[in-house]
Amino acid sequence: MTTEDSAGKPHKVWSCDRQTRKCVVASCLDELRTKGAAKLGYSNPFDLKIVLEIDGTEVEDENYFQHAERDTVFLMLQPSEKWLPPGVEALRAGHDETDGDVGTLPVLNRRCLDPLSLLRHLEKDASNVVHFTEEQLELVSEVPKESLDPRMFNLSFVETVRDTCGRLLVERREAQEAIDLIRILARSSQEASSDTKPGNARTDSEQTGETSGEHDKDRISGRPTKKPKTG
Fold this sequence. Notes:
The chain is of the alpha+beta class. Among the domains are: 9-83, Ubiquitin-like (UB roll); 115-191. The chain has helices at residues 3-7, 29-40, 62-66, 88-95, 115-124, 134-141, 155-195, 204-221; strands at residues 9-14, 21-26, 49-52, 73-77. Helix 6 runs antiparallel to helix 7 (155-195). The longest helix has 41 residues, at 155-195. Residues 90-103 have low confidence and may be disordered. It comes from Ixodes ricinus (Common tick).
């Protein structure tokens, strides 16, 4: 066991709004929870939800935590808080400059592929970007600002939205690749652990006993015993 394994790895814990940021060294998930809560000033460590800052994936499996890279950033959420992607704060700030009159909108769902409707949903509530699919993020990030009517959209807000959606798209894809890699490593570790268990390997004495038993059966049945070949 290395010194880092016993002492723990350095990680970062942030508040939900990403304004308070602390560093902790933790060897297990519970230690991250208690140390992180103390650093952030929370008195209810076991009521907190721990998620990956980059994509909001909840971390509740010890094996997953052990495979996390050094300096992984975790958000510690209070029961009333929810994860929002990086950049939503900027969207909200831009939204304050719009007139807020976006009219009647169709229900936002995964099949909505009209970039103008998606923009209007973000004007109505910037946190809607959390529910966007990768295809929707890509559509919004590629909206030509010059094609929009400035009487309908705040172009400064649209520019912020485009940049944020493009960044979220890249981060979401990178996060998924990282999660897939961690899952592969965790699965390989479990398989290697099961292969090395004592019950999975036969000893030489067991194999020798089987061979002797076969010879005894041959003698009892009258079959000639196979003699080993000599060189």
